[in-house]
Fold this protein.
Amino acid sequence: MANGNLVRTGIQGLDTIFLGGISRGNVILVEGEAGAGKSLLGTEFIYRGIVEYDEPGIIVVFETSPRKLLRDTAAFNWNLEELQQQNRLRIIFTTPQILEQELRSADSLLMETAIELGARRIFIDSIALLRPTASNGNSALPANGSGSYRELLQQIIEGLDREGITPLFAHERALHGEPAQTLETAEFLADTVIQLQRGDYPAGAYRRIEILKSRGQGFEAGVHTLQIKAGQGLKVFRRVQCRVQATGYQPTSTIQKSAIGNAMLDDLTGGGLYEGSVTIVTGASGTGKSNLGYQVLVEGARNAGKRGLLVTLDEHPEQILRNADALGLNMREQVEAGTIYLLHDSPLELEVNVHFDLIARTIEEHQIDRIVVDGITTYSNAIGDERKFREFLHGLIAFTKQRLMTAFISYENPELFGMTRFMSDSNVTSVVDNVILLSYVELGNMMNRAITVAKARGCKHQYITRQYRIERGGIVLVPEGISEISNLPFSSYYNLLSRAPTRFNRNIPPQIDD
Amino acid sequence: MLESDLEDVSAFEIESWLQTLGIQQLIEWDVLVYLYRHQSSLINAEQISHLLNYGSNLIVEALKTLESLGLVERSRASRGARLHRLVPPVEPPCQEAFERLIGLKNAHPVRRLLARRRYRGNVEHE
């Protein structure tokens, strides 16, 4: 659809879910309970129309004092008073009865004002208060015909359409009685219906926005996050979903590259991991998952010119840099050079759509090539909803694959020794390309660390469990044939990944399948 | 908008500002404040009278007075309703007088002064 046929709301993120804007000529209805943000959305629709698209507008209020409206919108740095003085905006206080008379009349003062202003948009807050003058205030509204609310709305819509004015009506959300009846009528007559919701966390509130319908165009269906940003206004965060259409082109890399510059580790993976692949690194706490992630980023930035992003809910950036320094990785240098970025968000009341938007914008703005998510377990707890967690993870994986980014995602295995199951609550292993297991192995009275590549798509990886150490520089594989325990290497044991590693009989050489 | 602190404003100053604007009656002040708060109002005198608890005839008179003072703009009548718009003065000394009065954090001194004037007027009349 050509842009000239779209009315842009100018509200951050809202035009995105309308795929560019709302079809011109559509009657827009915004509904929601008290405090959901209807008045703010309507006011911003008018404000943005004036300052960004040079479309003068009118705001009609019945109950809110216009002076309070001016006061409250000043908090968003919107100078509505100035716009009125410039004759680009008119805030009109009136009564439902007068408005109804005016909008039915061909020579109404309201229309005269609209013409004088050159108004292209109007916001009426709220049409739930309108009543046909023919109706008796004590009896129910007729459903149809003369004196009905439907007829009234049709006349209003007709009048505004004649003048080429895009109307946005607010209506309270009601489930019973007359308001529910008028809402149903308004929903039917409106071409675009936006529903706002307000809910409560245990210690906070959230807002949601959903497009129920919009005639003549497509839109992003589903419930998106809505926030009120101080100093700005409303912002819509698209819900986490795959940005790539199923039939769209999915780029695939054929380049195998060293992820952390370690030849022995690359051998385990059959020569390195494919660029653009997604790797899950799983292991108990302390096995070195974060360390591996730091190495991936530093190696990429320092030696391969790859910009990196570390995303975490667990640790503050300064702590991450301290830990990396302790390993001798000097990630700080890369952060200061702008080749590695650290993104930390709080897991408390995590708004997953907002968080995903932050990750996506950071990736796009800084052209990130490698991403490390450390650790995905905290996301599962923070999001609290298995389906939403899965959606988030799938969405993130799809986003990184579409950009051919190399991704490492760490997952904390709750089992200290051995691994009987792996990410059974999220069912994502089928969509990741590589799975690396980091384990503790107790041999004698020493805790050793073991690394196994359980899966590496498209790579001829080794099915061998190797011992590794964490020392300055990060993860280092212990060369084959060397061990700190009784001079016996890992290859002298079986069941290394179980809770009971067992030494092979010395008299019988171990048999290893190719 | 000049904010006037209650403690710093004397009755003499308030009287002076009201005189500068030409406002003599409490109802004129109340209607002026109503229009200031409601910006453009598409409304009839009867509805203003319901909101301000004055007789509609008195509201009509007050609106005419404010219009003659140049403080209010009224459109033609449309089925009994008019579009009323406050026109803040832009020239001194009226501009300062208006901003001082409207900017008062507490409007009671203004209303009290005008109410007393009405009382005195009633007493003299008697």
